[in-house]
Amino acid sequence: MTTFARPRNPLELAVLLPYQLGYHPGPSVVLVVMQESRFGMLQRHDLPDDPHDGLAVARHALSVAVREGATSIMLIAFEDDARESAPLVEALVAAADEVAVEVGLQLVVRDGHGHLTGQRGPTIVRPLPPPEDVPAVAPFVHAGVYPLPSRDHLIRGALPARDEHRAAAVAAAGRTSGAPDDKAVTQVWGRVLDPSAGALAVADLTDDELHLLATSVLDVDWRDALLAVLCPGTISWAALSAPHITRARHASTRCAWTEGVDAARSGHQDDLMAVRLRLGELTRLVPLELTPSLLTITALLAWWTGDGTVAGTCLERALEVDPGHSLADLLLSLLSEGVRPWERTGLAAVPDPAA
Predict the structure, then answer these.
(1) Angle at Cα 48 formed by Cα 44 and Cα 49, nearest 5°?
(2) How would DSSP label each residue in 153-171?
(3) Mind giving me the DSSP string for 193-227?
(4) What CATH class does 10-148 carry?
(5) Least packed by Cβ within 10 Å: which of 22, 84, 209, 229?
(6) How far is CA 126 from the centre of its chain?
């Protein structure tokens, strides 16, 4: 996530970060990229089980930070036990020194207190302010946005537990269904891509309709058209089939953000989240072998809206089911390298068109 409300001091930054991430980080280190005085990318890193793994993690983290134009970084560690984050923090400091990036702040958060390490002198310990006393948190509170208890809660919300009984019924329906009809595919996708409060629940679609949805995105042209329309700027429309784009635009008529690129996300967060959740619901209701392309669509939509955590989890799950799914593999590689596809060209040129 690159949009960043500005805290007034390091303690306020520690309070703000869970709102920016969408969840309480748990034992981890958050690296904040600074571009002069401007806040940039956030990177959250789990604490390695083996401290010796820390330097590899740190070097990769700094390579991404440098690519992001970091002039300095800040390190905010969240701990349950004293010094459990120290090996990774030390590795990040060493990696920053290797690439001549200044570490402007080191803060450890533990037991409701911030432990600020200065360049000189002892560590300063201060209690964290309550969220209501942090002005930078106010926009989140006013919007009714609060951090979830953990990263796992965020992932479970985006990818609910599978319904294998329903998935078996959908598979059975698929064995008796005929060839997909373009008009039917467009219509049923229009029902899924409906963020309104009165939209038909995904689970209320018929087994035939669920099977049609899942199998339709095995057609790479249709999948990529949906991606291009739902995530403006990720894939050039000129590189895709015009009839497929026309159908994808018709299916996403209720997705108001699809008419722009960068500015499209602002003001539509609730609708974007609603569609993401509906895609997650779809994924849990269909046979497992049909989920990778659906997971990849969910992943890119999540990443495009700034949620790399959910995006990475969706892509990893897609590759668990189908290790040869080339688009999922490509997107996961880009995600791990911090290369955003909507800031590059050529995403449409996927190595294996049969993915």
Answers:
(1) 145
(2) HHHHHHSPPP-HHHHHHHH
(3) T--STTPPPGGGS-HHHHHHHHHHTTSHHHHHHHH
(4) alpha beta
(5) 84
(6) 32
3 state DSSP class of 35: strand
How do the pLDDT tens digits run along the chain, 355 residues long?
344 467 999 999 999 999 988 899 999 999 999 999 899 889 999 999 887 889 999 999 999 999 989 999 999 999 999 999 999 999 999 999 999 999 999 999 999 999 997 656 678 999 999 999 999 998 888 767 789 999 898 888 888 999 999 999 999 999 887 777 899 999 999 999 999 999 999 999 999 999 999 999 999 999 999 999 999 988 888 889 999 999 999 999 999 999 754 445 566 888 998 999 999 999 999 999 999 999 999 999 999 988 888 999 999 999 999 999 999 999 999 998 888 877 754 444 333 333 3
Tell me which residue of 277, 272, 279 sits closest to 255, measured CA to CA: 272
Residue 207 and residue 68: Cα distance in Å, rounded?
Answer: 45
**Angle subtended by helix axes 242-251 and 182-192, to nearest 10:** 40
36 φψ region: left (φ > 0), alpha (ψ -120 to 50), beta (else) = left
The DSSP code for 128 is P
Residue 258: how many CA atoms within 13 Å on its side-chain side?
A: 25
CA distance 320 to 316: 6
CA atoms within 13 A on the CB side of 87: 14
Quick one: tokens of 131?
Answer: 């969220």
Q: Measured between alpha carbons, how far is 48 from 236 in angstroms, rounded to an integer?
A: 39
How do the domains of the chain map onto residue ranges?
A: 10-148, 156-343
Per DSSP, 130 falls in state P
Amino acid identity for residue 25 in this structure: P
CA distance 166 to 187: 22
Nearest to 212 by CA among 153, 294, 138, 310: 294
